[in-house]
Amino acid sequence: MKKTLLILLIVITANAAFAQQASVKQLNIYQDSLKKLGLKMINEPIELERKNANYAFIKTLVSALKINNSFLFKFDSLKTISILNSPDNKFRIFSWYVMHDDGSYRFYGSIQMNTGGPLVLHGLEDYSPLQTNPEDSVVNNRKWFGAQYYKIIPVYAQKPYYVLLGWKGNTVESTKKVIEVLSFVDNKPQFGLPVFDGNSKTRRRVVFEYTRTVSMLLRYVPEQNLIVFDHLVPPDKKMKDRPQTFGPDLSYDGYKLQNGHWQFVSNLDMKNIPDGKETQFNDPKKSKELDKQALPPEKIQQ
After folding, report:
1. Closest CA to 181 of 159, 209, 201
2. Strand ranges (E), the chain
3. What is the DSSP letter of 150?
């Protein structure tokens, strides 16, 4: 009896290992296809071709994620999109963009839950053009304020949530960055939460807009539970209503976490803030595989 059980255990283990190897092999094949489509999404000179590559990319990604244990596959050679795991490993976010010929962007993404079983995937639909007051809205994944994320900050408050830092290409004149809030209500994603206090009002998300000719610092300092960012100002007082002209003035503001809320603080002394490693978001335009004629998006600093 013991010998039979041992043989059965060996067979089951071998079958599981074989199935796992087969899954990894299949995921690697999908990853190769996604890499090729991702390069087309970025580099194709014709907008329609970029969009077609994107639609094929979405279908291929969904097919890949349907494979058993796909959550464990890192897609680490896929550099044209952002893939972020939450620090508690409950989910991961895929986010990316397609640039239009007029210099604007449309964002795409999905949230994959770590179920340990069947795929649970929440598609993200960019609703930005129709959001008139994005800092005041609470929306679901079908009315997402699209962005390409580069940082997830978990907040273990009475109602746990996650802060997302993201880059949001805007127009030929300006760029945006966003501090977003993600929470889950009845196991479904919700974006926006009134947790950013001060600086004239409470915000559900924070949106920055500035001229496309400059870069903006927006990063998290974990040692101080602080989100720090450039203070943006117009080049002239007459342009105070034209955020597309704004730029950094070499001073810094921030949001500091206190009792589950983020309190606005101004004129931060950067001497007291650890430099950290100002790593950049993976810039798909800088890959050696990409067309040198492609126009790079702004460098994204964490």
Report:
1. 159
2. 82-85, 91-99, 105-113, 121-125, 139-140, 148-155, 161-169, 174-185, 188-191, 196-197, 206-211, 218-221, 226-233, 247-258, 261-265
3. E
Which of 191, 196, 188, 184 is CA-nearest to residue 137? Answer: 191
Mean pLDDT of 259-269: 95
The Cα 191–Cα 162 span in angstroms is 10
The pTM assigned to this predicted structure is 0.86
The stretch 86-102 carries a mean pLDDT of 97
How many C-beta atoms lie closer than 10 Å to residue 130's C-beta? 7
217 and 150 Cβ atoms separated by less than 8 Å? no
Tokens 């094949």 correspond to 29
pLDDT confidence bin for 145, thresholds 50/70/90:
very high
Question: What's the CA gap between 69 and 19, in Å, rounded?
Answer: 10
- As to burial, measured by CB atoms within 10 angstroms (0-12 exposed, 13-18 middle, 19+ buried), residue 175 is buried
Q: Which of 147, 144, 97 is nearest to 123 (CA)?
A: 144
Half-sphere exposure of 266 (CA within 13 A, CB side): 7
Q: 224: which residues sit within 8 A by CB, 6+ positions away? A: 256, 273, 274
Which structure tokens are listed for 255? Answer: 């949001």
Q: What is the mean pLDDT of the chain?
A: 87
Could you read off the pLDDT of 268-299 as tens digits, one per residue? 988 777 765 544 444 444 443 433 333 344 44
